[in-house]
């Protein structure tokens, strides 16, 4: 079985690095990273990851706008998206789910739990 490929789109370098190290180490997944929505859209289309972890609050193009672009493109519309956000109240979760996102993971997250949270949201085994 080939390793899952996950794209992490977050403007905070520290978050990208921690997510990459943890997901590679704990789950053995291949991690791609992008520092903003626009480069994330390009990577999503060219690399076709199995899932995307997407920050909500980013300059220029925020997470929900990036998600709308992903959904509008037939080449990326099928890729499941999990939001990384500081806002995870019940109303936010309902809104994100109604937009078609698979889940929302609270920031800051426990690095050692990140892989299991992603796997659980997507129905993947670790």
Structure notes:
The protein has 126 residues and is of the alpha/beta class. The protein has one domain (5-121): Rossmann fold, CATH 3.40.50.2300. The chain contains five helices and five strands. The protein has a five-stranded parallel beta sheet with strand order 2-1-3-4-5, with helices on both faces. α2 (37-47) runs parallel beside α3 (63-72). It is globular, with a radius of gyration of 13 Å. The model has no long low-confidence stretch (mean pLDDT 93).
Oligomerization state: single chain
Q: What's the story with the biggest beta sheet?
A: 5 strands, parallel
Q: How far from one another are the termini?
A: 12 Å
Annotated CATH topology: Rossmann fold
Share of β-strand residues: 15-25%
| Number of distinct helices | 5
Alpha carbon gyration radius: 13 Å
- Tally of distinct domains: 1
Order of strands, main sheet, comes to 2-1-3-4-5
Helix/sheet category: alpha/beta
Q: How many strands?
A: 5
Organism: Brasilonema bromeliae SPC951
Keywords: Phosphoprotein
Protein name: Two-component system response regulator
Pfam family, one: Response_reg
């Amino acid at each position: 079985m080939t390793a899952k490929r996950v794209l992490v789109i977050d403007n905070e370098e520290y978050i990208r690095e921690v997510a990459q190290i943890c997901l590679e180490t704990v789950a053995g997944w291949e991690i791609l990273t992008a520092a903003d929505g626009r480069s994330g859209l390009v990577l999503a289309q060219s690399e076709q990851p199995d899932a995307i972890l997407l920050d909500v609050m980013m300059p220029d193009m925020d997470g929900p706008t990036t998600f709308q672009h992903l959904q509008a493109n037939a080449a990326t519309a099928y890729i499941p998206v999990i939001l990384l956000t500081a806002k995870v109240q019940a109303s936010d979760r309902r809104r994100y789910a109604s937009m078609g996102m698979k889940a929302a993971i609270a920031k800051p997250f426990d690095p050692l739990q990140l892989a299991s949270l992603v796997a659980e949201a997507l129905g993947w085994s670790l």
